[in-house]
């Protein structure tokens, strides 16, 4: 089997609200229960030497949710960092916030910055928390930086190409996403890492995020490997095409 293990996995963690509703609980209870699923995904990816895992935790569209839910999600990002830092260190994880800084309270930004500083010399999994993140916004922000460079005469129109623009994304060193997983059954991208998804394999599971564990993730990666190996064999075994 020549299919390579995915270097970069993206996950749209969906279905927390439905998980709670099915149990007659408030939506935030679903988010709370999603924390263990986050940690399990991080452990599995760290163990399997995946280079990067990007988790969609809060979209720029999610500000439209009820105030109480928004507040819970924003504070939860801080609480997870606080509570789990020791384990992140033990796993050798490098943490990074991906998204816009505007609208996020200074205290939360300070936690993201601290997590980045404390873990930046680790050698394991790059764990990206997409928070206040939108895929179109990221491309717009890159275009703005490019326009500023052009204005200063550092780049001409003819020199603008994919590599140049990609170099101005929020985390320019990240590889493209090989495998995008979405839980809770919706066949939607929801403005997640649009640039990095250009050539990704997309896999959707009906399992709701709080129920998504090791078995589910490992199962989906195995399926990914099978599908990639099959696609490769169509070209006589050459993986690039
Ligand atoms: C995903 O679960 C978590 C976030 C988007 C923050 P949802 O809250 O979207 O859950 P559903 O889609 O309502 O079930
Ligand atoms: C996508 O889920 C965003 C996150 C997982 C943070 P949503 O539930 O917000 O997206 P839609 O409503 O299905 O587009
Ligand atoms: Mg949802």
Silhouette: globular
- Major sheet summary line: 6 strands, parallel
DSSP summary, beta strand count: 6
Query: What strand line-up does the widest sheet have?
Result: 3-4-2-1-5-6
Terminal Cα span: 16 Å
CATH domain class name: Alpha Beta
Low-confidence stretches: none
Instruction: Give the mean pLDDT.
Output: 96
Gross CATH architecture: 3-Layer(aba) Sandwich
Whole-number radius of gyration?
A: 19 Å
Relative helix content? 40-55%
- Give the names of the bound compounds: 3-methylbut-3-enyl trihydrogen diphosphate, magnesium ion
Strand percent estimate? 5-15%
The structural class is alpha/beta
**How would you name the CATH homologous superfamily?**
Decaprenyl diphosphate synthase-like
| Continuous helix count | 7
What is the element string, with H for helices and E for strands? EHHEHEHEHHEEH
In CATH, the topology is named Undecaprenyl pyrophosphate synthetase
Overall number of structural domains:
1
Describe the structure.
This protein is of the alpha/beta class and 241 residues long. It has one domain: 3-Layer(aba) Sandwich (Undecaprenyl pyrophosphate synthetase). It is built from 7 helices and 6 strands; from the N terminus they run βααβαβαβααββα. A 6-stranded parallel beta sheet has the order 3-4-2-1-5-6, sandwiched between helices. Helix 4 links the parallel strand 3 and strand 4. Helix 2 packs parallel to helix 3 and helix 3 runs parallel beside helix 4. The longest helix has 25 residues. The chain is globular. The protein starts with 7 loop residues before the first strand and ends in an 8-residue tail after the last helix. The structure holds 3-methylbut-3-enyl trihydrogen diphosphate (IPE) (2 copies) and magnesium ion. One 3-methylbut-3-enyl trihydrogen diphosphate binds next to helix 1.
């Amino acid at each position: 089997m020549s299919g390579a293990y995915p270097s970069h996995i993206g996950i749209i963690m969906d279905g927390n609200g439905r998980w709670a509703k099915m149990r007659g609980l408030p939506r935030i209870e679903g988010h709370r229960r999603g924390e263990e699923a986050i940690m399990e995904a991080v452990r599995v990816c760290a163990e399997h030497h995946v280079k990067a895992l990007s988790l969609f935790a809060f979209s720029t569209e999610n500000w439209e949710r009820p105030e109480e839910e928004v507040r819970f999600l924003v504070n939860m990002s801080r609480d997870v960092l606080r509570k789990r830092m020791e384990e992140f260190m033990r796993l050798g994880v490098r943490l990074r916030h991906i998204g816009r800084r505007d609208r996020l309270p200074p205290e939360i930004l300070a936690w993201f910055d601290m997590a980045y500083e404390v873990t930046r010399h680790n050698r394991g999994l790059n764990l990206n928390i997409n928070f206040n993140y939108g895929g179109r916004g990221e491309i717009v922000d890159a275009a703005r930086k490019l326009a500023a460079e052009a204005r200063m005469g550092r780049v001409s129109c003819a020199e603008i190409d994919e590599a140049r623009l990609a170099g101005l994304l929020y985390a320019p060193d990240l590889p493209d996403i090989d495998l995008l997983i979405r839980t809770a059954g919706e066949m939607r991208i929801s403005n997640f890492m649009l640039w990095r998804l250009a050539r990704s394999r997309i896999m959707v599971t009906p399992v709701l995020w709080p129920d998504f564990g090791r078995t589910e993730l490992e199962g989906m990666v195995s399926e990914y490997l099978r599908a990639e190996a099959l696609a490769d064999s169509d070209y006589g075994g050459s993986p690039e095409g």
